[in-house]
Amino acid sequence: MLDNPRSPRVRAVAKLSNRAARSETGLFLLEGPQAVAEALNFRPELVVELYATPTALERHPEIAETAVDAGVDVEFVTEQVLETMADTVTPQGFVAVCHQFPTSVKEIFAKEPKLIAILEEVRDPGNAGTIIRAADAAGADAVIFTGRSVDLYNPKVVRSSTGSIFHLPVAVGVTLDDVRERARFAGLQIFAADIKGTDLLAARNEGLLLAPTAWLFGNEARGLTDEDLALVDRSITVPIYGHAESMNLATAASVCLYESAFAQRSI
User: Fold this and answer.
1) Which of 27, 101, 107, 232 lies 20 to 30 Å (CA to CA) from residue 245?
2) Rounded CA gap, 83 and 14, in Å?
């Protein structure tokens, strides 16, 4: 059992909470039973190291079975060691180290996608991870992070995706101009979520959501610039019928992605 929280091995895992260490090693941190289970079930080849407390493994024996089937060794650690490794204050008994695995935008558009989400300067990791999860749930074909958005492998992005990061292709580090050109060439219309746009219900009634669509979501505080909006086919707003001052970005993105998913599946 690994029981020294000051050991070089433990410190190396803990450093993956920092972007510099992730960039240098090409690795990232995974925490919690749900995310670990998704990695083992969908992309076990990415798992480099898997740590667990004995208590956690007793609570989740299925993870041990899946790890054995995948050929991944589980190393026991103390609660103190796990707390040192983890990015969260109260980790849930599991920490894994995984290889980063971004998909190229060329590969995404080569598969003739019908629904994708593009994140332009989305900085909040919780929002970014939740949008990945929503895109996965809505059956989207991919998510694309432009180079101005948060790091895909930020621990909070990974946690907020609740394992969806392993379910669909995610590209990173591209420019919005490049994505726009590729989307147009692939026959996708580009809709921007923007408060000054066409009402989403009107867009639905006009049949605008039936076609293959790339949804563009901007910064939480500033939204999208006029230059960004000039690149899209149409701006769409999610109407607020109650008294809320505004809508959280991830919530609005979920609504937009699901509206497209409903429309495309109705054909």
Assistant:
1) 232
2) 9
